[in-house]
Design a protein that fits this description.
CATH class: Alpha Beta
Largest sheet: 7 strands, mixed
Number of strands: 7
Radius of gyration: 14 Å
Order of helices and strands: EHEHEEHHEEE
CATH architecture: 3-Layer(aba) Sandwich
Strand order of the largest sheet: 1-7-6-2-5-4-3
Helix content: 10-25%
CATH superfamily: P-loop containing nucleotide triphosphate hydrolases
Shape: globular
CATH topology: Rossmann fold
Length: about 150
């Protein structure tokens, strides 16, 4: 089901992050697809900031998984930022602990999900980003059944 399909300017990212955060009620796993430089990490960082994450949010390309904390209702919760770019197969994902994060019931933001789609849960939010010039992006957000 399509949830959003529009272009946006980079200076609109704070409002966009607020909207994306609302979609986490549909699925705790939000995947991000797009070419290098399309803005996946930048958008994830904005969503994390909207959640109240105080840590610096950066690309987990080499660590595979970054864990941040946010507070809600007086309790702290983890949010996982996962980058599958360097993974070759499902076995590497398992060894890195990706599945444990994805099925933890906590928020997970996953870059490059197409690298190992079989490890993803059945229901996800798919965010597709396309650069349309230096300061403009196209975003398409859908709730999808994986597999």
């Amino acid at each position: 089901m399509e949830l959003m399909n529009r272009t946006y300017f980079l200076d609109e990212i704070v409002e966009l992050a607020k909207t994306l955060r609302g979609f986490t009620s549909i699925s705790k796993v939000m995947t991000f697809e797009g070419d290098l430089g399309a803005g996946k990490t930048t958008l994830i960082s904005a969503v994390c900031k909207n959640l109240g994450v105080k840590d610096v949010v950066g690309s987990p390309t080499f660590s595979i998984i970054n864990e941040y904390q946010f507070e809600e209702g007086g309790r702290e919760f983890p949010v996982y930022h996962i980058d599958l770019y360097r993974l070759e197969d499902e076995e590497e994902a398992q060894q890195a602990g990706v599945e444990a994060c994805l099925y933890s019931g906590h928020l997970c933001f996953v870059e490059w999900p197409q690298k190992v789609p079989s490890v993803l849960p059945e229901e996800i939010i798919l965010v597709q980003l396309t650069a349309e010039g230096e300061n403009m992006r196209r975003i398409c957000v859908r709730s999808v059944k994986n597999g």
